[in-house]
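haha ok so turns out i had the wrong file open the whole time. this is the CORRECT one, sorry everyone. sequence first:
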Amino acid sequence: MCCFSGEVAEVTSTRIFARAIPDGSQVLAYDMMLDARQDVAMVLPLPTPAGAADDAVGFIDLSGYGDLFDDLDRAFPTAHLPRGGSAMLSPRGQLVVHDVGDFEASFVPARADFSRLDPRFRLSDAALDALPVGADWGFAVFKLKHTEPVTGPAPTPPPAPGFFARLLHRPSEPAPPPPSHPRRFHPMAFRFPRRDPSRLFLPTVHVHDGAVHEVATFDHELYVQQSPPPASVEAPTWLAQEKTVSEVIDVPRTAGLLVADEAVWKATLRGRLPNRDTWLSPT
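then structure:
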């Protein structure tokens, strides 16, 4: 589930990676293209155990491997599927803010702990009420730092209108929208304890306007590293790798996110689909 603390124009090219850890935790990496005309924080609700400690989530800095998902995609065939309540005050201190490359990140152990979060990162009560999660879920919060737009330098403004054009100008006409500047950040990544160690969690619900709609437009690629192949109640089609992880990934640079000796699977979710998170379990 992905939601934002402020208005965003568009989120596209979402890529998510997940891998289970033998101790019952899992790692998760999240990559996207974001068009936001203001500073926002992205919030990922997590099914962490109730009562998780402030340091239960370990953030992974992938600022040195921004093209991780591009490399990961090279393991697969080039022919892909068609695109298609108020917060309670907490007696504990303010939550720690971690500097993780392009992001400032915090872990919020439960909804009641949002009062301990840096005010820049908080969701409104209305947005929290819209989330289809329990009050004891945790939240990974990423404040996106400013980066240069991926579209290159800002376009040259048009020349000023001539005399006759100014005479014909209608002040009542709405001004054109500001130009789109989608931005790319290096992947967000972290390790968290799972409430249900038998299932992998991938946050695919959209909450971009403060509401959870039954159907949403997806532009997602999901990657899972596990053996045997992943399965879900409503399973997408999973592609098997054609190249091994060691052939396409610089494993040490992933800081424990991937391992070299396990298979990776890929699924594509595109088009208008039911708006829900993705849960996976072994076949």
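The first strand starts at residue 2 and ends at 4.
again sry for the mixup
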